[in-house]
Amino acid sequence: MKRIVLMASVALTVCAFAQTVNGPVANAGKTGVGPVMRPGAPDAATRARLQAGMYARMGGTVMRPNLEPGICFLNAQKTVAASALDVAMMNIRNEFRISCYLREGEFTALGELAKFASGTNHACVVCVVDNPEFPQMLAAPDNGWALVNVAPLKADSPDSSKLAERLAKLAYRGFGMAMGAGFSAHAGGLMQPASTLKELDAIYGKASPPDCHFPIQNYCELRKVARGGVAPYRIACIEGWAPPPKDEVQRKIAEEIKNLKKNK
User: Are residues 243 and 155 in the same domain?
Assistant: First the structure.
């Protein structure tokens, strides 16, 4: 119950801050009508002052180090640039705030993948191959691995940009399946059914809808996936993994937290 109340309180605080900082909003769908100010919304100078105050307190955001156990993307193909997998990993970090990292390797048989997944400290392994003998995707959630295959994505000879976009979506879907999610009943999300390349291309979302998001999140907790994504610089200092300060604001925050820890 306390957790529910705390989450509700945090949500209300974030919404209130967002409403204060965002200020005027446009009248969507109404031609010839200018921006409408929310009651009490600050002007641009006030919003800038509020944002500067937030930066002075929190020090901006920094990326968490990608620690194990996390989501390992094992790239065993050379057809598509690894940047396509960076897109998938960024979507995962943004949505779940968990650790994701890329490893290069070779792969010739499913037994090798199963052995690699079971013999490492990765919470999940998504292996990317380009092999016409394999299906587009395989997933073994009980064993913590998935295989995604570039070969079927090339069936209609797409350009490199389209192929990279398809792989980014498929890599995310492989992660989702390996982490306990099924297909979603909601259109547009990355986990909706897609039995053809046309249906895969039609997916426009960057994340999972709720009926897939929460099963994945629960499975991440079960497998004790390390935290990832971005966090405020102040939190990084408190948790002890902050990178060196980049400006005077972060330096002051780092010194403040250091002194607090010293005086405990």
Answer: no
Residue 8: per-residue pLDDT = 45
Please write the tens of the pLDDT for every residue from 77-97: 999 999 999 999 999 998 999
Rounded Cα distance, 126 and 165, in Å: 17
How many CB atoms lie under 10 A from the CB of residue 87? 17
87 in any annotated domain = yes
Write a three-state SS string for 246-262. Answer: CCHHHHHHHHHHHHHHH
Boundaries of domain holding 240: 231-259
Q: Are residues 205 and 89 in the same domain?
A: yes
| Whether the model pTM is above 0.85 | no
Distance CA(231)–CA(227), nearest Å, equals: 10
- 138 sits in which H/E element: strand 137-140
Nearest to 206 by CA among 52, 61, 88, 42: 88
CB 41 within 8 A of CB 20: yes
CA distance 36 to 59: 31
Q: Where are the alpha helices (DSSP H) in the chain?
A: 2-22, 44-58, 83-96, 110-118, 160-178, 197-202, 210-222, 233-239, 248-262
Neighbours of 33 (CB within 10 A): 10
Q: Report how many domains make up the chain.
A: 2
